[in-house]
Amino acid sequence: MSHTSFLTRSPIPSHSQYTSLTTATTNTTTTTTTTRSPGTTSPGFPSSWPRQSALFGSTSSPSTRRRPTATDEALRSSLGYFAFLPQSDPKPPLPPPAPNTGSKAATDTAERLGSTRPPETPQGCSESDRQEHGTSAHTARLEREQAEATQGEFDWVRSGGILRDARGRRDKVRTEAIHAEIRRRDEEDGIMRTWNSYEERWRRLSRPGTGTDQHMAIQFRDIPWPQGSAADRELGVGPVGTVEDLDVESMQRFFLATLRVRTNRMTRKELVRAAWLRWHPDKLVSVLARVVPEDVSMVQEGISLVMGGSPYIPPCFGYSFFSSARALERWHESVNIEHEREQIGLD
């Protein structure tokens, strides 16, 4: 279908009609002179060309406008119309962005980029719920930013850097405080690594085996004795190889060390029960059955020493582990300290 088929066009004159029309126009034209009146053709153009006013209408003022003649009307009726096709947009509009699908990949990318856009509020919530939701999201973002800033300071001080205040001066007080906190964290990490290793050795020892593992022989050094903390290594206390290597004070430090960890959630009563259930001779029958014959007596003696040496064991188990009055006094001091910790809510 043609783009101009919807336009109404006048019939185009044939060659014979155009020739006769041109001849009639030529006969009515006077000789061209140097002086032109309004409405005549410009000099240098053939007189047979139709006037501009006949094609597009006159643009002169009403006083100088010429009355159209029969020839002009004939020309006007024989001409067609200009048709301009609508221009298409060279740059079509972009499609709308796809809705957020809430995928895990998009969420992870937003978190890595540090997006501060709060999470969307669930539909159907009241205004108070929306305000509370926005406040909680803002608080969580501030806490996350504060934790990241604090961790950055710790990393900087640990690498040997010095903190500065808002004016750019060295902040020795804050730097030293972070140094002390780093030392305490390192101490707590060492305590927990020793305790977790102790617990893992007990899990492997108590785990029921299959086949030959079930009847594997156990020696004295295979027992996870409560000794070997970081403080013991600093004091030169070596690994336990015989019953003579078991040190009562070292066992006390081992059990008391976990209460110095701020992230510890076990109370003193829970530790007493766990130690009692683990080291009671009736609970270790299966373990003693796997001990090699030459180490059975040493293992039994070590178990008795642990049961008397743990400060969490009730007094009915006896205080035979105290070698002197000073050792008994130190034990009472440690118990009083832990009692005060419980009173102020640290446990």
UniProtKB/TrEMBL annotation:
Keywords: ANK repeat, Nucleus, Phosphoprotein, Repeat. One of its GO terms (biological process) is negative regulation of canonical NF-kappaB signal transduction. Residues 1-153 are annotated as: Disordered. One of its GO terms (cellular component) is nucleus. It is found in: Nucleus. This is Uncharacterized protein. Residues 19-42 have a biased composition (Low complexity). Residues 89-99 have a biased composition (Pro residues). It comes from the Eukaryota. Residues 1-18, 43-57 have a biased composition (Polar residues). Residues 127-147 have a biased composition (Basic and acidic residues).
